[in-house]
Amino acid sequence: MKVLPIILTCLSLSSPLCDYKVGRLIESDKFNHISLCSEGKLFRENIEIKVKGEESEIVAEPSVNVGYNPQIFVGNFADNGLEQVLYSVESGGSGGYSFYQLFSFKDEKVQSIFNSEDFNPTISATHLENDIIQIDYQGKILYLDSSSSGCQNKDDCSLYVSSVNAIMPYYNIALDRYFLEIYQRIYGGYEANNLGYIVSLVQVNEDGFKTINIGTASNFSFDE
User: Fold this and answer.
1) Which whole-number Å values give the CA distances from 159 to 143, 153, 198, in the listed order?
2) Element (H, E) at 180
3) SS3 150
4) Which helix (H) or strand (E) holds 10?
5) Tell me: the pLDDT tens digits for 50-91?
């Protein structure tokens, strides 16, 4: 009598899990059914994005197809009259990193038009006086207030810039399109000592992407 619950538990762990959305991905006047499917319970594997076309199912396999909490977001990023699918998945661990990829399905052809693993601007950070950090972003100079730092001795608190830590869809209502707001962490000594972020605003087109603005974000909690 105890065998059946065990079998059902095993089946629930191995059966694909799917989340569903709709969007105009292939033709501007027709909605498409989009599913994000994976296997596993907490740690998800074999993650795929499936789009129903007129006569076929188009499958996109992300370059990072394992991880935690996979998600998809549908919106007009490429400004070509269609919508695209932004995929994210969390790596887990203390770093808190996620991987992101943006897919186009125009003309029933899947194309990766942005991958966070390819976003790697040259950035360096230096301590100045009065808890100010100077950031050199490919020749552009920015400043960040680091008074929230846990570093008591700056000589023993080297500064580092992380790879992509998080990406948020940024909607410009005047242009009626989405941009990618990309966050990279500035940390001192060890990753958990987060001092703030470099923020890049990125515009994506079918043939590539470009950074159109940069800034910083503090690590303070704002209380009135």
Assistant:
1) 14, 12, 13
2) strand 177-188
3) coil
4) helix 3-14
5) 999 888 899 999 999 999 999 999 999 999 999 999 999 998
